[in-house]
Amino acid sequence: MVEHITGMLALIGVLSLVCQWVGWKLRLPAILPLLLCGLLLGPGLDVLQPDELFGDLLFPIISLGVAVILFEGALTLNFKEINEHGRMVSHLVSVGALITWACIAPAAHYILGFDWSIACLFGALVVVTGPTVIVPMLRTVQPSAKLSSILRWEGIVIDPIGALLAVLVYEYIAVTADPTTHVLYALGLTLLIGLGGGALSGYLVGVALRRNLFPHYLKNTAVLTIMLGIFVGSNLLQEEAGLLTVTVMGIWLANMRGVDIADILEFKETLTVLLISALFILLAARLDSNAMLDLGWGGILVLLVVMFIARPLSIWVSGIGTNLTSQDKWFLSWVAPRGIVAAAISSLFAIKLEALGFSSASSIVPLVFMIIIGTVVIQSLTAGTWAKILGVKQGSAQGLLIFGASKFSRELAKLLTSKNVPVILADNNWDSIRQARMDNIPVYFGNPASEHAETYMDLSGIGRVLVMSPYRQLNPLVTFHFQDVLGDDKVYGLNNSDAASARHQLSESYLQRLCLFGENVSYAKIASIMAKGGQLKVTNITDNFSFDDFLKRYGDTAIPLLYLTKEGKVKVISGSKLQEYPVGIELICLLPVEAQQQAEIQRAIDEEKLRLAKIEAEQQAKIAAKQRELQLAEEKLQRKQQELNDFEAQQQQEMLEEERNELIHNEGQDKQTELANTKLSVKGDEGN
């Protein structure tokens, strides 16, 4: 028997890992393979029977696991982040959640005949979506950055809010079901212990963390242990008050000033992944296949209400007063898969309510799992096509995630941001992150390959990763992680290896790929250049100023980094091949002091050449002007000579004309005289 229990526990652990890997590999929410695995082992093959395997320990295991899941989710609920991520997110997690609840609860009551109390609990359970199902779907669908951010932050924020709503509804049902206790007294005591005890414990733990009362290696373990102790203590003071207490405790810690919960959150996330995987297989294995079939068309109708009435109504009401288009709202109306919180809490509450005499509570679990399977499967398969039809799918992602927020990275990020290229800087060094924030650069503080980063770091519009940090042990992890996420050709590494040590630890194939910005460019080289006064420079490569002209001006010490095309695409320069730079690009380079000095010398030479050329041009212009003056003078002289010639010719013509006229006149007078003489002669003859 012991060997059987040990073997089943090992099997659950191995299958949990396999399901998580399958979900990651297929870009699907891990909840789907976990669900299928649990259904196959339980109702399908009858290999795994959790109730027989764990006996009386099953309920405490599920109870403690749900407490950890709720506490981890509550740690993410920072009220500032709700306001920072837009009116739409704020509306969705408040008004939208209430609308969803108000639509689903009556549907469960009237369609399936649930009691109003059970129907309200079911409605509260399926309000939540959750980042564990949203993030993998967004990676596959790739909607616009705005829509991706809305859905991602809705899943993060609604997780603890929906869980808190479900806990409050359950607490009300639990106290009203106890005939020996006054309802108002029991409910008041539950709220007092849950709200007051959660706030007080959260404050005290926060003070202890702020004053560093725990050594670093005990901090995560101490918080987890204290949380579980408070959960059990609250339940001892008032039955079922523990879930509310740990939820409020987590929310208080998340919003307490001066308390760094990043390490705690990362530890809790790792633990939660293990708990989610194991719990989901166990919970799915407990399902009664006949119970799901008994839901029949009623269960399908409730699923249709969830997808086609509750979600669209909450989106369109929440979208009032926002700048979302109709296409944006129709897309958001279709994407709302339910996740692990609904499954885990529903199973826990069903066990407790059945113990209190609610026979209909057994129907909650199969109905919740039907909603989870339906929304995850249908929306995963159709969301991408729907995004294309609506035209809300983002184009080729040109943004950059830069791991390492050194001075060089910050200067490069500022330059790219000024060119409207999305950039995120990630680093473990708080001082570097703080300086980047002062420059208004989007940042992520921590390991970008962590589970926390996968949920909270917004990679919308990010298409490539530049690994440029001094952390030799962490760089390969970040490189391999994002190669799996984005592809091998989308991750570029800067050489940061030590030939004496790292080459024995890292593979040759990996080291050969560390050729960002060129084969001979290393992190140390760039850091040295920046420390000595290196600068980033943007140069337009045109027909009048080619890359050869660039090299002539700046020399071989200039390091081309990347360039922007006319179409707005970003091309990262990497490898040992000689790059060909087309005309019309903006080339971004790192200029060492030597290149700057050479550029100054070359610029002075060019300016001197330009000055001499200008002087020569001025002299040539003067000579040309003199030549034009002489030419004009000659032309004027020629015109005068021509005028003179014309005048002399005219005078001569006039003189000839006068002489001719005079000759004609004289000849006429002679003829008249001769005629007169002839007449006189004739008259004389007649007289004689």
Q: What does the radius of gyration come to?
A: 44 Å
Bin the strand percentage. 5-15%
Number of helices: 25
Low-confidence stretches: 499-504
Mean pLDDT: 81
- Describe the biggest sheet? 5 strands, parallel
Q: Give the class-level CATH name of the largest domain.
A: Mainly Alpha
The strand order across the widest sheet is 3-2-1-4-5
Q: What is the terminal-to-terminal distance?
A: 195 Å
CATH topology description of the largest domain: Na+/H+ antiporter like fold
Number of strands: 9
Number of domains: 2
**Structural class by secondary-structure content:** alpha/beta
CATH architecture of the largest domain: Up-down Bundle
Brief rundown of the structure:
The protein contains 25 helices and 9 strands.
Kindly describe this structure:
The protein has 688 residues and is α/β, with parallel strands linked by helices. The protein folds into 2 domains: 1-390, Up-down Bundle (Na+/H+ antiporter like fold); 399-496 and 510-591, NAD(P)-binding Rossmann-like Domain (Rossmann fold). It is built from 25 helices and 9 strands. The protein has helices at 2-25, 31-44, 50-54, 58-74, 79-84, 86-112, 116-125, 131-141, 145-176, 183-210, 216-237, 242-254, 262-285, 289-318, 326-334, 340-355, 364-390, 407-418, 430-438, 451-456, 474-486, 508-512, 523-531, 547-554, 593-687, and strands at 399-403, 423-427, 443-445, 462-467, 491-493, 535-541, 559-564, 570-572, 585-591. The protein has a 5-stranded parallel β-sheet, sandwiched between helices. The chain has a 4-stranded antiparallel β-sheet with strand order 6-9-7-8, with helices on both faces. α1 (2-25) packs across α13, α9 (145-176) crosses α10 (183-210) and α14 runs antiparallel to α15. The longest helix has 95 residues, at 593-687. The termini are far apart. The model is unreliable at 499-504 (pLDDT under 50). Residues 661-673 have a biased composition (Basic and acidic residues).
